[in-house]
Structure formats: C-alpha cells, structure tokens
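Weekly structure sync - notes
Attendees: PM, LS, DV (DV joined late)
Agenda: review two folding runs queued last week.

Item 1: First target. Sequence and structure tokens pasted below for the record.
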Amino acid sequence: MNDRRAKVLIIAYACRPGESSERQVGWHWSRLIQQNHDVTVLTRETHRRHIEAWIAGGKEEGPFPEFLYYDLPPWLAKFKKGERGLYLYYTLWTLLAVLWCRRLNRDGRWEITHFLTFGTLLWPQFGFLMNTRYLLGPVGGGERVPLALRGSFATAGQLKILVRHLVQRLMLVNPVFLANLSRADLILARTEETLDMIPSRYRHKTELLLETAIGPDMLLQSAPERANATLRIVSVGRLITSKFNPLLLEALAEFKERWKRPFRMTIIGDGPERARLEVLRDRLGLTEVDFVGSKTSKEVYEELRASDIYFSTTMKEGGTWAFFEAIAHHLPVVCLKVNGPDMIVGDGCGIKVPAVSHAAARSQLADGLLQLAGSPDLRSKFARDALSHLETNYTWDRVAQTIDRVYAGLLARPRQDDRFPAQ
C-alpha cells in the first residue's frame, strides 16, 4: 500500500448508511477509502440526520470521513417528483454544490475529486468543474435491456427500451458527457457495456471496476445445511421492469410444467410492477409464488440461508448487491448472461442464459432451473465455484488496493491545467 494519504473530495449525492443500492455505494466506498486517505464527502443535507444518528449510535467503528452537506433551496424540492424531476434536481445540485466546493478549495484543501454517485454517465453532473485532479467512477450507463428480450415488456416498456438505446447513442454529442470524459484523469467503468459507450479516444484512461464487492461481513462460516422437502427458489430486488418482468414468471411456469413436483418461489422486494406481476402470476396459475414485499437485511439473509436456488431475470444492472448476497450465502444462480450478472457469476460458476430471444431465454431459464432442481450436487458445485470466483476477483480488499493504486498514480502526475479557476 502507498503510505501517502491523499486529500480527497468524494461527490456522493446518494450516501446513507444501512440502506441499499446507490446510497449504500456512497456510504461503503467513502468508509473504505477513509481507511487509507483523508476523505471529505459532499452529499445532500437530507442525509445528515441519518449519518449522524448512525455514527452516534455506534453502528460502526470510526474514524469516519468528514461530511459536507449541501442542498438546494427548499422550494425547489417540490419539483423533485418522478424520474424527470429528480433528474433536473440532481443536475442543478451537482452544479451548485461543485461550485461551492471550488470556492472552499482555493487553498488546496483537496488534491483529488472523486465522483461516485449517482454512478451513471447518462445523467449530467459537473464534478469535472472542480479545480483538482478528477477521478470519475465507477460509473455505468451503458447497460441496456437487450433488444432481443423486448418481448418481455408491454408497448410502453418497449418504448422506454428504445428511448434508452437512442439516448446512449446520442451521448456522443452530449457536451456535459464529453466534458466529464475529457477532464477526467481516470475513468472507472462498471461494465463492458459502459466501456463500449466511451469514445475510443478516452479508452486509454479507462479501467473496468464494479461498484460492489464481497466482504467478510457478508460471508457465512460454512454452507448452511439444506434439506428442504420442497424445493425453495428466491429472488430479491426492487420490482421494476428491468429487474422483475414477465420473463421470470413465464420461465417459472414452464419449469413448473416440466418439474411436476412441489416447489416455492419467494420474491422479496416492492415496487411499481408488483400489482402487474401478481396478476400475471395468478393468470399463469403459479400458486407457488409468494410476493412478500420489502424485508430487513436480517430477514433477507434468513430467506437466502433457507433457499436452494437464486433465480433472476434482471436485464440492466452493474454490480447488484442481491447477487453478491446470494452467492455469499452459498446459493447457485440462474440468470441472464448480461452486464453485471455476467461478471459476478463467473463462467462455469452458475447457469447464465444468453439474450437471444424472449422465447429462447424462457425455455433455457426453465432448463437451468430443472438442472439445479434435480441435482443437489450441481447446486453445491456452482455455489462453491461462484463464491470462489467472487473471493478471487471481487473483494473489498481488491477494491481498496485498486483505489490506492489509482490515487497514487493521480498524485504522481502533474495536475491538469486549471481551466476553471475559482472565483
């Protein structure tokens, strides 16, 4: 490890302990980087009470980063409704918050600005305006629902898929996107799909790095004893179309028709697609499927320990926490061979179905479930191999080593010309 502690400003619009998704990324990365560097986290004022209560309650041992809280005037918050409102609020927040931090940095308080969340290149943000060296990522944005699987969605869903594909293509003429890539000293891309979206002239300063990893706190000491009389399948996540969709239930219906033995499927999570999925479940006669809503981490872990197979048809993700948690609990995985899941479940470490067509994916997912359902030995083998793959390639220790190396490299090079002098 390099002994030089860098002075770092982390931009984390989403940063809150004890939660999941982007908020967990902001919190966990800040805490991880603080171990070897001097970290200040720029985040939203609305996260202050959660962060301060968490620290005061002794939920984790310190030391903790310094936190700077910034929010837009309260009257603007009423416009932050729906994805479009959030998009505009976030864009304005990053601009004004970064300009505020530029003024604070007149005396060289920070050497590196590390933009972290929201970790997408599709939403405009202005971290590149900071008068420091600039690290971007890990960022996604290139992940997309494969067009071959658009049959899994209704007309409105298919339109959203096409719009996303179009937006990704138009990023090549987006000035804020290009300014971020040009100004960045280094770019960390979450997946190959995002790497492919970055113009070739910036690839020399781009590395591949997932935003999630596995740590000792997630691992069981040993594989749980599973002797279920009835096969148990589980899936966890927010109920949105890109994560939970008709393909999952249709594949499960085909599996049921061919398995002809008892099984249970538990779906943990909530979201806007729940009602539609429950209607489809009833229409397909899948009385074995239970939608149980959101659960605490402890309850999720208990269900993972009690289950035999983790099944997912998520189509557009980077490093999904749910996959890491499932594999850490010694579960074999059946999923689609796309973006983040394809990286997390190593080749030969689970059943990954290519996105050739809706019909082909449905049948091959059912095949995968049948293979694992009928062979406890194969389930154990895939669970062991998947865990070994994570422990070799995706641990928080490796992430920390990568960041130490990246920071050392940034500090060793001259700062870019100051194109945006502080006022």
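Item 2: Second target, run right after the first with the same settings.
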Amino acid sequence: MMIQGLEHIGVAVRSIDKTLGFLKETFGAEELARHEYPDLQEISSTVHFSGTYFELIEPTGPKSVIGKFIEGSGEGFHHISILCDDLEKCVGDLEERGLKIVGKVFEGPYRIAFIHPKSAHGLLIELTDKGLPKE
C-alpha cells in the first residue's frame, strides 16, 4: 500500500459562501471548484490556501449525511482524506488487517472509501486515489 500524503481536510458547514468569505478575508483562501451532488444532498467546495486543500461540505437536504452530522455535532471538522496510489489495493490491505471500510465508490471521477471511525480511534478517514476535483 503506497500512501502519497494528505489530500484534504473535510469541513461540514451550514453555508459554503459564509465560510469561504471568512477564509478568503482572513487567510487569502481561493475556491478552486464547486460541485453539487444531488444524490448525496450536498454541495462540495474545494478551497486552497498555504499549500493545503480543504473541502467545505454544505447540506442541501434534511436527510443528507452532512446535515445529520451538523445537527448532532455542529459545524466543523468532518474527515481527513488520504491520497493513495491504488484505492482498491489500499482498501483490500486495510480490510485484511481487520479495519472496517464503508462508503466504497470505485467507479466515477471521484473514487473514495472511508475507514469507519470505530476502526480509526474516532477519526473518519477518507481514502482516495483521485483527489478532489480542482478545476
């Protein structure tokens, strides 16, 4: 399993525009891309500053995972994303070691899987071999 490093930090927010405005004014952040995911009932914004990428995730519906997360925990840190060279191999290696992997999406432009927080000392860790869309 080859890990290339941190891909991004995911942050659950009520309003991408308000959070992005704060990050732009305070730190000079730049929005690189914004995508809506109707099936997930969320909007995702890729934000870059000081060599770090953030994913701001805003719910668009009451049944979204992010909406439920904000309801229970409030806005803030949601997950870290780790970039690996081969997602299927990485997931297979981790499952062989006994880690619980959920949310596997091996098809499409944004390939991901998550290490369940119970297998990662409370952290939600996203694995990807493509990274966030940075148009």
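Discussion on item 2: The domain at 3-128 is CATH 3.10.180.10 (2,3-Dihydroxybiphenyl 1,2-Dioxygenase; domain 1).
Action: LS to circulate a short write-up before next sync.
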